[in-house]
Write a structure and sequence with these properties.
Beta-Lactamase, kinase activity, alpha+beta
């Protein structure tokens, strides 16, 4: 059974709690899409100062929109294009303090000012990315990166 937990600790403690909630949400569920849907809803509830959170899934050499929370988004992003495609191609998390300064940024929502993208890698293959946008510049930092990578690891482990 899933229960909402109050997030009133340190940022690190709160991230650990949301990862525990994710484990409870996906335990015993075999549908990857359902798990991604609940994961995006959980992060949308947990994270402050965000305007979009969701997943893009790999199909051939591009990312295709998956479960998300927020305004309608770009449907297909080629590997190597924009923040999501670059993170997927390089297999590394990218934090962008100001999206307007990122070469080739793909603006799906004009309100977005900063972004973090965490690749999901299974057996050496990029299966998708977690993408989070904020209407605030410099919203994401190394703490977000560390715990969002752990969050993604929990999801990837279900495959």
């Amino acid at each position: 059974m899933f229960h909402t937990i109050a997030y009133n600790g340190t940022r690190e403690e709160n991230y650990e709690l949301v990862i525990q909630q994710l484990r409870a949400l996906i335990e015993g569920e075999s549908s990857f899409i359902a798990n991604l849907a609940n994961a995006s809803a959980l992060l949308n509830q947990f994270l402050e100062q965000i305007n979009w959170v969701g997943f893009y899934l790999t199909e051939n050499d591009e990312l295709v929109l998956g479960p998300f929370q927020g305004l309608p988004a770009c449907v297909r992003i080629p590997f190597g294009k924009g923040v999501c495609g670059t993170a997927a191609e390089n297999r590394k998390t990218i934090i962008v303090p100001d999206v307007h300064l990122f070469p080739g940024h793909i603006a799906c929502d004009a309100a977005s000012q900063s972004e973090i993208v965490v690749p999901m890698v299974k057996d050496g293959n990029v299966i998708g990315v977690l993408d989070i946008d904020s209407p605030v510049k410099n919203r994401f930092d190394e703490t977000d990166q560390k715990y969002l990578e752990k969050f993604v690891d929990v999801i990837v482990a279900t495959l």
